[in-house]
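Give me the 3D structure for Thioredoxin.
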Amino acid sequence: MAIVNVQDANFGETIKEGVVLADFWAPWCGPCKMIAPVLEELSQKLGESVTIAKINVDDNPETAGQYGVMSIPTLKLFKDGKDVGTFVGFRPLADLEALVQPHL
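Predicted structure for Thioredoxin (104 residues):
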């Protein structure tokens, strides 16, 4: 599935089914800009099997606080609404694939 932008209001609905990799980011964050093309590549590679949900922490502090996001980028993997993995900071494509693949 394509990369989708989500907000506090629809985050819970977005993660409740399937495999969702949530990217907690902000426009001023350098490492967030670096990981964006890696997420794009992951999306192309895995196609419909995973949703990548980008959530801007500046605009959506409620969700960031709910999941304890203290540093960005934070990537949280959800399967059917359950938090099954977390990475903080920039990670290469191989690391992200290793996080996601067991849950597909």
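The mean pLDDT is 96. Let me know if you want a second pass.
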